[in-house]
Amino acid sequence: MAADDIPAIDTRAQGGAASGCPLHEINFFDPDFLQDPYPAYARLRAEAPVYRDPNTNIIYVSTYDLINEVNRQPAVFSSDFGQQLASGAGGEIDPEEIAILSQGLTPTSTMLTADPPVHTRYRKLGAKAFTFKRVEQMGDYVARVTNDLIDAFIADGRCEFKTQFADLLPMTVIADSLGVPRADMAKFKRWSDGFIVQLSGMATREQRLAAARGMIEFQHYFIDVIEQKRLHPTDDIISDLVHADLAEEGDPRKMNHSELMSMLQQILVAGNETTAHSITAGLYYLLTNPGLIDELMADPDLVPGFVEETLRYLSPVNNMWRIATRETEIGGFPIKAGDTVMVRFGSGNRDTAHFPEADTFDIRRENARTHLAFGAGIHTCIGALLARKEMTVAFPILLRRLKNLRLREGHGEFRYSPNVILRGVLELNVAFDAA
Ligand code: HEM
């Protein structure tokens, strides 16, 4: 596969991953496979910690230590995969998609899809948005948002937890932090979903075209916001970014629309769905591990451990792309310049060499916080503090207010989204005693 190709998705039947079929018969992109990739991850770690999938030519890196080794070498394993994603499945950019995107800004790589020194420059500005001090001050505010969201459904005695709570908490926090109206959150969700499908490398043509149209709407919307904040700055992240100076980085100017758009897109996408999935999965783990809710209620000091274990166990960013910049090796396995590499954070987080009994959900796990859910190295998540804050504040309130919380049997199946990059729960129907 050429460097700028993305895997073509085939629909060969999945199965046998755990039971010993040859690795090359596993379709790692099959939506059914993605429901539970963990047996296959265990086989990869044991049989081929660095594995070139002959069906896609992607190299999978699956052990905790080797993932860290890749992430420690950003010059060799580049994050400049934006162009690659732009070419979609099949490796060619659809002319209709080009026509739509040509109405918008020229894309710029900033944080997630940039390498040093470009990455360093933008990351410094992005990281200022979610400093320890700023996030520490958000506790009461996150509690208020949590309570308001619960107020909206508590009288019903039931809810679809993902859409009625887990999606809305991070989305509200991001909207407020950026300084845009909460009333526009449905639009942000639509745009964000489009970007996520694109990041997966699994989008259909229709999804890519819809995402491209969403991108143009997103740009128009935020150009207006940027221009307002340029003239009338307020106390929010967009105002900070609009007025931030690249002088410190040796480039004395403000960011242009394209740079700002890339930063905002990442904050919007990275900050919403990942946290929403973590909150939804965390509740699911509580409801399916008898006694855990009582334990957490009895001892709030266990909440941070529960949050870390949820992040480790789910690994919402299950995998991430890298591109080899030169011939090299990892774990003794040869890599060619231009190879597409996938670091499998989800697999590293279940590596028994680092996490004993890694498939067990254990809120008292001593090293849970060393998980790879927020990545590792120079691209480590800038929103980790915020995501942790939202989860540690929200769960005790949810458990206190939603009495006799239980799964609504027969209402929706517990399924993971069919996305190779982001792992998350599609819906979670719960019941509780109406207040
Ligand atoms: C549970 C929630 C979250 C998870 C699991 C998560 C996970 C990750 C991971 C694994 C990376 C590294 C990607 C790589 O190595 O290429 C990352 C990067 C990033 N995250 Fe998060 N994230 C979460 C929440 C957030 C939030 C709340 C924000 C912002 C408000 C955010 C913003 C970013 C940005 C901008 C990057 C790129 C950083 C860089 O490339 O230097 N994330 N995230």
N-to-C span: 57 Å
Shape: globular
- CATH homologous group name: Cytochrome P450
Number of helices, where a helix is a run of at least 4 consecutive DSSP H or I residues? 17
- The helix/strand series, from N terminus to C terminus, equals HEEHEHHHHHEHHHHHHHHEEEEHHEE
Helix/strand class = alpha+beta
Tell me the β content.
5-15%
Number of domains: 1
Question: Helical proportion?
Answer: 40-55%
CATH topology: Cytochrome p450
Q: Which spans have pLDDT < 50 for at least 5 consecutive residues?
A: 1-15
Main-sheet strand order equals: 1-2-8-5-3
Q: What's the CATH architecture? A: Orthogonal Bundle
Mean pLDDT, rounded to whole units?
Answer: 90
Instruction: Name the hetero compounds present.
Output: protoporphyrin IX containing FE
The CATH class designation is: Mainly Alpha
What is the makeup of the main sheet? Answer: 5 strands, mixed
Count the beta strands: 10
Radius of gyration: 21 Å
